[in-house]
Amino acid sequence: MSIVLSLKGKTRKEQKKKVSQLRTSDQIPAVLYGHKIKPQNIVVDYTLFEKIFKQAGESTLVDLSIDDGKPAKVLIQDYQLAPLTNRFTHVDFHLVNMDEKIHTAIGLKFIGEAPAVKERGGILVTNIHEIEVSCLPKDLIHEIEVDLSGLKTFEDTIRISDLKIPAGISLQNVPTDLVVLVQAPRSEKELADLESKPEATLPVAEEAAKPTEEKSE
Known about the structure:
Blueprint: E1 5-11, H1 19-24, E2 27-34, E3 37-45, H2 46-56, E4 62-66, E5 72-81, E6 88-95, E7 102-111, H3 115-118, E8 123-126, E9 130-135, E10 143-147, E11 157-159, E12 169-171, E13 178-183, H4 188-196, H5 202-209
Parallel strand pairs: 1-4, 2-6, 7-10
Antiparallel strand pairs: 1-3, 2-3, 4-5, 5-6, 7-9, 8-13, 9-12, 11-13
C-alpha cells in the first residue's frame, strides 16, 4: 500500500534580506521547480515539513498544494541544514510528470537477523544503504527491504542482484555490487598482534614534521 502524504505551501513574496525572518517564525523558504514550469518561491510550515520528511525522505511522492491550488505530485529533491542546529533552512521541491520516468535513490531497510552474527559472533558490514533506480513516479516506493536471515556463514553475501525489486523499477547499480556481508570476528591472537605493533604512521609523521632544506640552484 502506497503512502499518501500531503503538504501545504504559500507563495513567498519576501525579498532575500527578509528570508531569515521566515526561519525564525518556524517557516522554511523553499523553491518549486520542474519540467515546463517557472521556478516558484514558496514557504512551508517547519513542523509539518519535518513530519512529512521523516516519512517521505527523498524517495516518496508528496501532494503539495500552494495557496488555494490543486495538489501536485512532488519529490523532496534537496534540502539544506543549519551547521550548528541541524534545522532545515531551505528545501527544493521537484514537480514530477507522472508520464515520464524519474531517476532517484531508494533507501534500503535491513530486516531480520543474520545467524552468522547471532550464533558466530560475526560483524555485520553494510556497503550500500541506498540504490539508484529509474521508474515512473507511480511505481516509486519508499524503501526496499533486505532480509539478513540468509547470512548464515562468513562466506554468505547479499549483492544488488539478490534484492527483490518490484516490477516497474529498473536498477542503475552494477548487479555484482556487494550490499552486505558478515565479517568474521578477530581472534585473540590477531587482536594481540595489532596491539603489539608500533604505530606505523609515527615515523611518517615525524619525517613530515622535519623542516625541508631549500635547494640552491
